[in-house]
Amino acid sequence: MSQRHAVVAGAGVGGLTAAVALHRRGWRVTVCERAPEPATAGAGIVLAPNALHALDAIGFDATRATGHAVPAALGLRLPGGGRLSRADTAGLAARYGRPPLAVHRADLAAALAAALPGRTVAYGAAVTAVDQAGGRAVVRTSSGDLSADVAIAADGIHSPLRHQYFPDHPGLRHSGETAWRTVLPAVPGPAPEAAETWGRGERFGIVPLADGRVYVYATAVVPEGHRPTDPRAELLRRYGTWHDPIPALLERIDPEALLQHDLYDLAAPLPRYHQGRLAWVGDAAHAMTPNLGQGGCQAVEDAVVLAHLLAARDVPAALAAYSAARVARTDAIRVRSRRAGRVAALTHPLAAAARDLAVRAVPARAALRALDDLYGGFTLPAHALPGYTA
């Protein structure tokens, strides 16, 4: 029997995890990435325990592979410095087996790519369409057509392949917020405390990475498409009087390395995450806001579950089982993330004050239990899981 071939559209975290998972199960994999070269800029990512357990299932140790992952748990603070909740890294580790780990996205992507054979990832090769004929997936790319046993759409939040196969889907919905993100280089001195600070309609996050680098992000309730002419000045205006070390971190921002993206999720769930020999993973399948830190983590889960099912079943049956295993979980998290964002982004003073009181009143143990379905919710499905019809 000839070696089965998978073509993955997109070399983000989800696409590369799928490629590694399939490669380790004996598949030949080609990853097509529209960008001309690997990303080096970007932002951090916190791998929650559920994502780490999924990576463990394919024998990929994020800490060892990147060399740049550090334990991370975010407490909540107020702009004046008061605390809404404290980080509990030890409690998370005890309850879920692993603490969350923070890593630069580029480091994680590079480590995943390094776990693949040479020339697996083709840069500058945009996937434009996937057609299906003769029991094969025909992947159309800017560098030519590829024939595959299975195609995996990991082509991001604006997924062209999602639009090709679900043209009547309402698509993306703006959350009402925009986000700025960057990674600051190391400077002498102790690392700042990991925390997220909630104001009224504004948030600021600090996530220390290895080697003294610091991932910072900020969100604000603004109209869709809002783009200040001087983004660093905008951040200083909004957050420059907040508690230390936020003003000092803002002073270190390089405007050229600052990313800004409006925040979206899918307006409605997809009816399924497969069609014939094509499957969707990550943002292409279930774009969600970043309020729970689960976008990348769910992409990792998708990839590992998909490879697990493809190892023991024919492709159409495996993809149907994949939809059955993933749609309900990921859509519940998408909805929960949007609701969490609405609470965190309250702008009315009385509503924000009531929110803050409610967060302070939650016992630490109850706050941990509330994460059980997220951090403790990853399982590999039985190979005999009944699937959707194509």
Structural class: alpha/beta
Large-scale geometry: globular
Proportion of residues in helical segments? 25-40%
Number of strands: 19
User: What is CATH's topology name of the domain at 5-73 and 99-172 and 266-344?
Assistant: FAD/NAD(P)-binding domain
> What is the CATH level 1 assignment of the domain at 5-73 and 99-172 and 266-344?
Alpha Beta
* Distance from first to last alpha carbon: 25 Å
For the largest beta sheet, what order do the strands appear in spatially? Answer: 6-5-14-15-16-13-17
The helix tally amounts to 14
Low-pLDDT stretches are none
Provide the CATH architecture of the domain at 5-73 and 99-172 and 266-344.
3-Layer(bba) Sandwich
Q: What's the mean pLDDT score?
A: 94
Beta-strand content bin: 15-25%
What about the largest sheet?
A: 7 strands, mixed
Going by CATH, the homologous superfamily of the domain at 5-73 and 99-172 and 266-344 would be FAD/NAD(P)-binding domain
Kindly provide the radius of gyration, computed on alpha-carbon positions and rounded to a whole number of angstroms.
21 Å
Explain what you see:
The protein contains 14 helices and 19 strands. The two termini are 25 Å apart. It has helices at residues 13-23, 49-57, 62-66, 89-96, 105-114, 160-165, 231-239, 246-251, 283-286, 295-310, 315-344, 349-361, 364-369, 372-375; strands at residues 5-9, 28-33, 44-47, 70-71, 75-77, 83-85, 101-104, 121-123, 127-133, 136-141, 144-148, 150-153, 172-184, 195-198, 202-208, 214-221, 259-266, 274-275, 278-280. The protein is globular. 45% of the residues are buried. It is an alpha/beta fold. Helix 1 (13-23) runs parallel beside helix 5 and helix 2 (49-57) packs parallel to helix 10 (295-310).
